[in-house]
Amino acid sequence: MAKAQLQSDPSSMLPLTAVVFSILAALAEGEKHGYAIMKWAALAEGGGLAMGPGTLYGSLDRMLQSRLVEETGTTDDERRRYYRITSFGSRVLVAEAERLRRLIGAARRKGSLERIHA
Amino acid sequence: MRQHVLSFLVYERALVLYPPRFRSQYRDQMLQALRDAHDDRKTNSVRFWLSAYFDLVRSACTEHMMTLRTKVFKQPVLVHALSLGLILTLLGGVAAVTMQQMLRRGADQPQIDMVNDYASEIASGTNPDDAIPPGYVDPERNLQPFVIFYNEQGKPEASTGYLDQSVPTPPAGVFSYVRSHGSENLTWQPRPHVRIAAVVRYLNRAHPGFVLAGRSLREVEKDESVLVWMTFLGWLLLVLLLASGARALQRVERLKQVTT
Description:
Chain A has a single domain (14-117), classed as Winged helix-like DNA-binding domain superfamily/Winged helix DNA-binding domain (Arc Repressor Mutant, subunit A, Orthogonal Bundle), CATH 1.10.10. Helices cover 58% and strands 14% of the residues of chain A.
């Protein structure tokens, strides 16, 4: 029961690693197979993360267990399976984005970022 | 082209580094993602393969650690047994060190009394030759305590302790330390295999100099060695008992699962 409650609370999953955040953000755009996720994450808007197959599928494995993502079941090739974000995964993604937004907002208000740039 | 085929083959073989469950679930998908990435690559081939192999080794280590963590946490008996084993090891270590220290400090006790007695006598004006009775103790052969009086320059003037007919003298640093600090208890090794529990006290009245009382640590070190072995055997016995207990409990758990 407690575990189920913890699972349904997005804040229990925070903070996310950069890889998990990028994968969730990639899948928030629509379902994708492994290489499409890697390609999206490598883009500047995807976080500019160069991840290899080992890192990707290791993270996907844990994200499947945490029910952040799921397999779609549709495939054009047995070797190319598609993944999509779950509703819990979407809530976690939003919560992490909000956390980061608050963090950056606070740093901006205090002028920390401007001081570093100067 | 041939180089690419070979690199791919090596990568495919190296997937054996992953835990079996992970490998059977993601092997084909990983190879396909790698093929797609290679066809689409923007960097040169050497750099591409280096980063692919680095990713493989790093993530294989991560997956093994995750698998191990899951296995351990799925077996609470194992976690408890490991924690208890760690606590027992720490407690055993602390007890052994404490007992060893007690044995070593106990070895100083007669010398402390002797140094105090002779120092008071010499400080009250008695000549060191008269204060220290005649005697011959060779710490290499005898276990009895001995006493030596050294003058201000560190030269022996009266002694009951001898090594091969001559009076042993501690390093000069000991005298300068005792001169500034008053007294010191130390383990002194005048020659290999001869270790002495020595107590030195500085006198600055009547006959200025140093009174040293010592005795061989041979028996104390034998006791220490016995203590170390007993502690080790006790620890080993407890760990074996713990391991058998944990194993038995695991079997009971498995039987329960089967019957339910």
